[in-house]
Structures
1.
Amino acid sequence: MTTTLKPGIPSSTHPLSDIIHRLEAGGSMLPDTPENLMQIIGIYKAYAVPMDFYWRDLLYIAERVFLNPIPAFKYFISQEYLDRPNSYAGDQSQLRIWRGEATAHPELLEFMERGETGKMPKLWHHLWHDRVNMEFAEACMRAMLWHQGMGGGFYAYLESEEYIANADRAIKAYFKGNPLMLGLYKLFPTMFLEKVRELSYYANLGLFWEVMAPVFFEMSDLYDEGKMTTVPEAMQFLVNGIFAVAGRPIYHHLYIGDECYEIIPKSAGFTWLYEAALPYVEAVFYRTAPFRGTKSYNAQANQVPDEQQDFHYGILYADVFPVGSAGIPPTLLMQDMLHFLPPYLKEFYAKRGRGEDDELIQLGITFQRSMYNVTSAVIQALRAALLYPLDDQNPRHRMANRRFFEAQMDRFLRPEARIKDIQHPDYR
């Protein structure tokens, strides 16, 4: 006798079962409310403008500054890189995600010229720290470099003989005619090589953010036009974007004049999804590291995890508070986003909390909400790639999806996770 299994499966008994059921219905970890949608789209726009600088400067450092022993002007991006067309915006793009211009965003250029203190030479803006905080971008890059081995073969390639030979050619070409630096390279080859590996992560992150900036700009435009009306729609737009650019090459080139040295060639076969996007989410959203000055590093007292995979200091777990100390990455990003908030989000903050007095904290918590939505998109994309459609009628397939979602939610059972907080509008 053949038993016919019914399509339905029992309700989840997981502590976060309500969120799991929402994911199974095609939703996000973030509840679908007009206020949540307004907040996350507004913060995506505020994030995209400085991100348009981050990706350009990261590639400028990886491709042009390279091993400059005194890189004092590495944040003084060249006009060539400000004019560099984004691969996913403008008429020249093969896959146009954003309908806007391909060169640096007008709001970014205006801020670079005037900042908060008015029009003055670039050096004065820099010394006054009236600029985009590239230190945040570098902190994200170092998190990816440190938390290696998270899928893909990018980090393993950096240890390969092919990579070492490519880096050697690039180093010798860069220091050609400089016997002092060539002599130091001969004495300390590993030190130079390790720096080149770090620069390869500059390129990796720059190519990742080159995609995300036009994605966020387009989402903002769709919302303004009334064409993006729910949180699941925003999440699905991200899912579609992930699949559309999944195969984008990740590479590292050095340019000396007009000559290109391929340290990581495109032919190596590294792709955006597996070598940049997933490692970024894992390293930056989940793991990162305890922030200096705010968390203890006393490993002997078990105040730092024994294993890297147990690190839980990313934005999904963060207690958002702008302490203002030098080098605290969330504070730097929050300050960058503050300059580019859309008017509707500024008005929203002005009516809550202490108004402008705690605007940084409010936008930091909004950013946290928005990154839970991005993480939801990644989770749904992984489910779609590895398992079964949400409307699959086979109970075994639906149960496989269920187990996948429950495993993902296990990571949010830590007391530091903010997933329960973002379910409520009064979390601010």
Note: The radius of gyration is 23 Å.
2.
Amino acid sequence: MKRLFFILYSLFISVALSLAQKNPKPGYIVTNTGDTIRGIIDFRTNDILSKKCEFWANGESESKTYNPGEIESFRFDHNGKYFVTRRLNVYGDPQLYFAEFMVQGKMNLYCVTDKYAEYFFFEREDGEMAQFTNRSLISSSSIQEEINNQQEKKEQYGKVKILLKDSWNAVQDMNVTDLSRKKLVNVVRDYHKDVCTDGSSCMVYEYKPESDRVKTHLKAFAGYTYYLKENTDKQNLDENYSGSAFDFGLGVEIDIERLMKGGSLELGVSYSPKAKFEHDVLVRGGLEPSHTVYEKGRVAYAFGMVKRFGSGKILPLVRGGGFYVLNFGNKETRYYRDNIYEWEWDNTKHYGLYLGAGIQMAVGKHFARMHGDWYKSLESSDIGNMMRWGVTAEFVL
């Protein structure tokens, strides 16, 4: 059964991704002959954009994919990202890339990105070039590899400072504790300000950080849930509890438009006040049914993905992910004839998957949602063996 749920969740992710491979944004390309053609560009991750540009010219329904060298450059509108064809030595063998053009002046700054690192290239006006690499922590598979990466970074750091030697401010700006994209842009700007003496040559193109900014949304939600199946770790009857409960919570959502059009990652924490679940069952060997009440509250954590479809004010959506539940205040009371039996026990916990679908409606700059969801625990024992359906309303800032 657990394998089935993992297969269903994997299928959900695969379908969502297969339906979300385009993220069109207005922009233009510049051909190798210098002609500018306006249209739509597929706005993907920096890694993908360094290798290809998928472009729809205005008035055309079919796209054309350009590789580095087949066009001179492309850029997104509204001072968006700007990529130019450059032959760069990223992995030890010079190749053509669409390099992100971050700063242009007496010192140019380019960047090529892959899944694990950003490769920055400082190009002085006379053609001299130095490279600086920012690698992610997961790029090192061993301690020795991490040592090698640190040694590489130290050597590159020194070479970049030598290239910047004509500007004291730029050299001082190269602080090894902060070498973010924004910081490196400021380093090159300061170099240009110090070195440039000809007013006609002081035109500097600046990378706009807004085009890289990830949109994050806060949200509040409330829901109603009906439990089709609920067991306890003290239960010794064959029946499952059923019943309903309310919950409410807060969450955060992060857009992943460049990976998936209409996609976002969600993280939420919900609280469900203490609720009662009841059933009547005939005890083995008993003379009449017993009435049993199970009481508990819940705190649940959920992490998953939301995929919206289409454009407009009202959009359909699907969602899915995993959850972790902490049950507290567990108490079971059984009434049988004239006797009352009570059990109380410590907090219990379980985890599982959820899938859902619903609609989203724009409300000014914000939006509201209504969705129905199915939750199923993946515990191998009866402890926390839960299945439920829920309806939730969200308001997202």
Note: Residues 108 and 296 are 63 Å apart (CA to CA).
3.
Amino acid sequence: MQHLDFSLYQKVNDSFRRRFIYHAGIDCGFFVEMNYMIDAMLYCLGKGYRFQLYSDDANFGTGKGWAEYFEPFCEEVHEPFHHKYNLHRPPQWHRVIHHVIKTRSLSFIFWKLKFMWKSLMGHWLAYRSYGEYVHLSQDVASDHDIHYHIPALRLDCSYYEAYTMLAKMIWRPQPDVKRQIAETIGSLSLPCVYSGVQIRGGDKAKEARLISGKQIIEALHPVDGEYIFALADNYLQLEIVRSEFPHLHIVSLCQPTDQGYNHKAFCTAAPQEKRAAIVRLIVSADLLLHAKKFVGSITTGPSVFILKQRHAEPTVSAVDCAKEALTSVLTLPIDQRAALSFGCINVNKVLLKSQASGSVSRVVNSAVGQ
């Protein structure tokens, strides 16, 4: 796969007249936010918007935002109104009504109306600050069936290929983080060839089923003596898995104090503790991106980030989704992915719906460089 030239991306992005400001780190885990941001970058490339970033208040940072961990890739803005009025796009009305019928509560409608008011305020404040109409995070409407044809960037590829190129382009850790990555990986004594898994616990149970470590390791089909790096958040669960597979070398950065990731607790943690946790997460993801084999889940942020980039590789899979369905499933909302993971929805229905919607190929042709 070709690489996206960083300086060329900056040149093309800066050439767009219309402005889009994305708010990173609003209310989700680090890799869910990363996924949303890359989708927003693709949206901007397809529509011809200049992508800019607001991350001063990012829930994964300690006041420095994106640049605390990674090299900047676009211009950042710092107006404080983005904190309250630049938001993730909410579910569409048909999904809101479905939820109201299911729960027999009007609270979701009031939430949607409140969001619409905040969105109007955000656009008005942006116009007052910049003297022009500015698109915000809530304006992103991703279309994953698009084929990107952008000659100025030498792009002529599908959504997943474009996603992967952007993900690799922005994955440029700051020098101190890069040093920590190298030191941490060196301390693990992993061989050059190893496998990888993600074993999720904690508050994920609120929105999706928790899959046992045993089930995930078995899906990897390991051989005796195999080295496996595990991204895990519950040390007790990790020790149980190690006892179940004594013939494997299961390595992890999971700490003895880790009892399962809780996003609300993480967001209120001390800055030093929060930074250490994010650096460990970045190191873990870097290791999983380079593992020979990988098994994750369609419901967890790091797994989705990795699966989107490596889904076509024969040694990469999700424990809760058929290999042939991954490209249709990975772009679904979390509630639908959770239902598929639970087995509440037949994956064949998802495939049929995807094939029907993709029967007419849609191509995005950028005006830049035409």
Note: The chain has 15 helices and eleven strands.
4.
Amino acid sequence: MESYLYFAFSIAVIVVIFLLIKKIAGCILKSVILLIVAALLAYVYFNYFKVVDGDSETNVEQIDN
């Protein structure tokens, strides 16, 4: 009888651990995707939408005295 209780307890522990890992992994996956998207948006912003005060023909910045 004791081996059946041990077996049932082992199955219950495995199910609980599986559910916890599934929940934690889903949260971590969403966080990683969010960080990748934020880094991509920052890269696009700083490299393509940067506003520079300068001459567009010579590509030299103007300095105000």
Note: Strands lie at 54-55, 60-61.
